[in-house]
Amino acid sequence: MRGVAGEFLTAELAFALGRAVVSATDARSPEVLVVRDTRLSGEMLEAALCAGIAAAGGQALLAGVLPTPAASILVRRFGLGLAAVISASHNPYGDNGIKFFDATGRKLPDEAEAAMEADVQAWRDGAGRSAPQIGRVRPITGALEDYMRELESRFQHSLEGVHVLLDCAHGATYRAAPLLFERLGATVDTIACEPDGVNINAGVGSTHMGPVVERLRAGGHQIGFAFDGDGDRVLAVGADGEILDGDELIAQIAVGLQARGELTGNGVAVTVMTNYGFHQAMNDAGIEVATTDVGDRNVVDELARRGWVLGGEQSGHVVDMRLTPSGDGIAAALMTLQALGGEPLRAGGVMKKLPQVLRNVRVADRDALEGATAVWDAVDAESRSLEGRGRVLVRPSGTEAVIRVMAEAPTQEECEAVVERLAGIVGRELGAG
Asked: Which terminus in the chain has less CB density within 10 A, N or C?
């Protein structure tokens, strides 16, 4: 759940969600770990959420500012029933959000979310206000150290001699990332490590790569990493100032794990948005690729189903199931350095990205795409023309009356021509506004 703090995501709604998540469990008095990022509204929502948890008989455990993946890791390490994260990830500071993890460190299943929605609506309607079950709200100490200890035990890889630049987006990684890299032996410089409640993601972080690119091009660093506000994703920059996205990092990590005999199942799971160049690189390396719908939850589900360990998204969510079933930006950065083995990070080193063009076509009804025969005939024709060289993807947005038309091809010009043709047909057939 995410929106403008104080307007959509109010203290009242956070309270109702706290009640609802306790009611959605089988435990009589579940312990719920609560973490947040550095946003100004975080403390208000934390207080309200914890009050709701306690009002339903739960035990709220306040861990303070930590990256989102710390919740997924620590809920299992501490043997707790649930974890809650208050963060709006890469959004501006005025937004905030709440997400929940179950006792296994995975996001709640659909049926639990549906039960919570019904409980929240009943609360808003004045129903279900039975006599309160009195729980507690308690701070816990040492959560940051426990999170870093888990990462250290997983990545026993010396970074001596590595000069790294970290952009922490004035967000949840501002303490953990520099401390951990230094403990592992790296020389660390930082950008955006002074949160003030309103500067999170403001012109920095993984959605604003300019500052870290500029510093890398100025020289003095071998590699740079930029996290988003809640620390569950990362992008990288090589010494030449070239940006590498999640596809390229996953490719680098996969090849490194394979070389060390650690790529369980010899496969990776990615989404439909993953660049065609990734598939070509994995094919060349003899690594199987499973493709899912967009969303890190879908990637995690596929990895769990197959018993694989590595997957992620182009945006920089990288999942290592050996650590936790959630994207972890710091872990992904460490896995990248481990895979490099002291060699420089270069765009095109493991995979060569194909040019990509994406266009959003506004339509009257996005659900009408399924029966649009003329559109699918055109998609088939374009796919055949790109077979072995690229691909096309046409899919509805999950939230807007929009159809997303994407093409990847050997040249930018061919991409644009394919998208132009397909977008025109989508517009004509589905009533673009």
From this structure: C
